[in-house]
Design brief:
By secondary structure, this protein is an alpha/beta fold. Helices cover about 45% and strands about 15% of the residues. It has 21 helices and 15 strands. The protein has a six-stranded mixed sheet with strand order 3-4-14-9-10-13, with helices on both faces. Helix 5 runs parallel beside helix 6, helix 5 packs across helix 10 and helix 17 packs across helix 19. The longest helix has 19 residues. The protein is globular, with a radius of gyration of 21 Å. It binds pyridoxal-5'-phosphate.
Length: about 475
């Protein structure tokens, strides 16, 4: 089984359990397996008819050995995690015209793709912590979908106390209520007013809390955010599944179009390809936030001011998982990754050499989708395919249609949220909200009681830790 190292190369290798529970190595990098496991075509063929959960067990077993989690326990963890999905196929696909397919990643409890990995990762935390007799406090910043997924997965887990932070007004009311209506005693929602840079401001809050040794120790802080290795690992599975559903013959290439924010989903796809999955092109579909498309097109990776778009879950200016992708693209040269990271930290941007640029962009295409184009694609899809897309699914489909005539083989478009999470955009696009744009769980949340803390960006660095301490002390008394 692989050991886990840091992309910045300055910590000793650790095992899987340590990498998951720590979330982030002490040198400020990201954990990654020293070597990725390989999958042969023969193995792929033998997986062809597996259900999603059965395939997940096979793929995850490449990363997790019996000594870490016995097979029966792993099967149970997977069954518990994907048992909360309401569709009998877990992650269904449907065919569009022109050899396009939509992979619906949104049938989990909070109707977004984040449920795909979060359910499993939170269960994994709980499993390890109960075995060790330990507890953790999770801090989760959210641009909309991560928070609800983490909150929901944490309900009833006594090993975890979970704090969700969201920027007031910058996520939808539906998303906010998916957190604030949870009454579980170990789940706490926090709205922060005046976040100019959206959830990036909240990442900064969490970063500072982690940097405070006393606070981190006292609270037993940990993180399931998009840089936790186990999230990326779990997301490799839907690429294998999509491939096996749509390759006409195992070995033939197919393509994927992915709406990208923090690049976790796409990073998982690029790892699946490195593991041996015969993927043709990976299409990086983005909105008006251009960090990734600029990097892929010009080799300049730069912090840019955030722009608010209809596809708000990918309004991200710091796509952290790019650094994992970079590490493998540069052949595991941690010294070079560290030098690039230092430049990026110091100057807010780093320009890669021509050969480095080629190394990380080979096999990728990128396409930028404006808000107007999101509406147009949603409208067109509703008319032509008689089905609804959420704004992120629309970003993927728009990008796939753009490249359709240039690519051979199927293109699988990742639809990452249920349309009911974005009713305002749907109304703007097609003038009404059809039944397919509603969901019972969100209708119920509309009238349920809410519970949340509210802070201001200006004072959050003092106020938030104080309240978290008070809650911990209170709980200890009970
Ligand atoms: C998180 C999210 C994405 C982007 O995934 P990344 O791994 O951050 O690139 C896309 N769509 C939706 C709906 C999401 O919640």
């Amino acid at each position: 089984m692989p050991h886990y190292v840091s992309t910045l190369g300055e910590v000793n290798p650790v095992d899987f359990e340590t990498a998951v529970l720590l979330g982030k190595p002490a040198d400020g990098g990201l954990f990654i397996p020293e070597k990725l496991p390989k999958v042969s075509l023969t193995q792929l063929k033998s997986w062809q008819h597996l259900s999603y959960p059965a395939l997940a067990v096979e793929v995850l077993s490449l990363f997790i050995d019996e000594a870490t989690i016995p097979g029966d326990d792993l099967r149970q963890l997977v069954a518990d995690s994907f048992g909360t999905f309401t569709h009998p196929e877990t992650i269904p696909h449907h065919a569009l015209t022109d050899e396009l397919y939509v992979q619906e990643l949104f049938h989990g409890p909070t109707l977004s793709f984040k449920d795909v990995a979060m359910g499993f990762v939170v269960n994994l935390f709980d499993y390890f912590l109960r075995r060790r007799g330990e507890r953790r406090t999770l801090m989760v910043a959210t641009s909309g979908d991560t928070g609800p997924a983490a909150a929901h997965a944490s309900i009833g887990k006594s090993s975890l106390s979970t704090w969700l932070f969201f920027p007031t007004g910058l996520i939808t009311g539906e998303q906010a209520r998916q957190m604030t209506t949870i009454m579980a005693p170990n789940v706490h929602s926090v709205a922060v007013d005046n976040c100019k840079n959206g959830s990036d401001n909240l990442d900064e809050l969490i970063f500072r809390c982690f940097a405070d040794d006393d606070f981190r120790e006292e609270m037993q802080l940990s993180s399931v955010n998009s840089i936790n290795w186990a999230r990326v690992m779990t997301q490799t599975v839907h690429y294998f599944y999509g491939y096996l559903r749509h390759a006409s013959k195992v070995g033939d290439p197919i393509n994927f179009a992915v709406p990208c924010g923090a690049f976790g989903n796409m990073c998982a796809g690029s790892m699946a390809r490195r593991m041996g999955l015969p993927v043709g092109k990976m299409i990086i579909a983005t909105n008006a936030n251009l960090v990734l498309s600029q990097a892929m097109e010009t080799g300049l990776f730069a912090k840019l001011d955030i722009r608010n778009t209809y596809a708000s879950a990918i309004d991200i200016s710091v796509p952290m998982n790019f650094w994992r992708h970079l590490y493998y693209s540069l052949g595991g040269d941690a010294d070079r990754v560290r030098a690039a990271w230092d430049t990026y930290e110091r100057e807010g941007e780093v320009r890669f050499t021509a050969s480095e640029h080629t190394a990380f962009s080979e096999g990728f295409l990128s396409y930028t989708v404006s808000d107007e184009h999101i509406l147009e694609t949603t409208r067109d899809h509703w008319k032509r395919e008689d089905s609804l897309l959420d704004p992120h699914g629309a970003v993927a489909v728009a990008a796939a249609r753009h490249f359709r005539s240039q690519l051979s083989g199927p293109i699988v478009c990742l639809a990452t949220a249920h349309p009911a999470k974005f009713p305002d955009t749907i109304r703007l696009a097609i003038g009404e909200l059809p039944e397919a744009g509603k969901h019972e769980s969100l209708e119920n949340a509309r009238t349920a009681g809410e519970r949340k803390y509210v802070f201001d960006h200006a004072t959050m660095h003092e106020a938030v830790p104080a309240v978290m301490r008070a809650v911990l002390t209170n709980n200890a008394k009970e």
